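Sequence in, structure out.
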Amino acid sequence: MTSRRRSTGLCLLLVGLLAAGVSGCGTSPQMDGEWTVTSAEGHEFVGSTRPRMTIDGDDIRVNAGCNTMNGRVSLTDDVLKVRNESTTLIGCDQELQAQDEWMARFLADGATVGLEGDTMTLTQGDVTLTLTKQD
């Protein structure tokens, strides 16, 4: 799997994790919308970049700073999974490419989702991303 495909998968997983407030497969209407990472514990993003995710049913779109990743998400036992991912192939500087790859791995490996109102958390090991739903 290419680095860009992994990046796409990771971003998609992150979006799915945000939807973890619903049990079983698929996502909840509460998860639909655009989400932006507002804080991160255990990971530092490049400069002022903040990954964004858009969830529409089982579809997800993620941008971690360079490429846009697309795919389908499912949620089982509060863990989001991404499948059928694809990504744009924009040439990025090395730091942003590494960030895309990190996000793809994060999402591909699965993260536990917490959802309370307009705030979603995605947790994997020592890393917790907090996302806020955009109006």
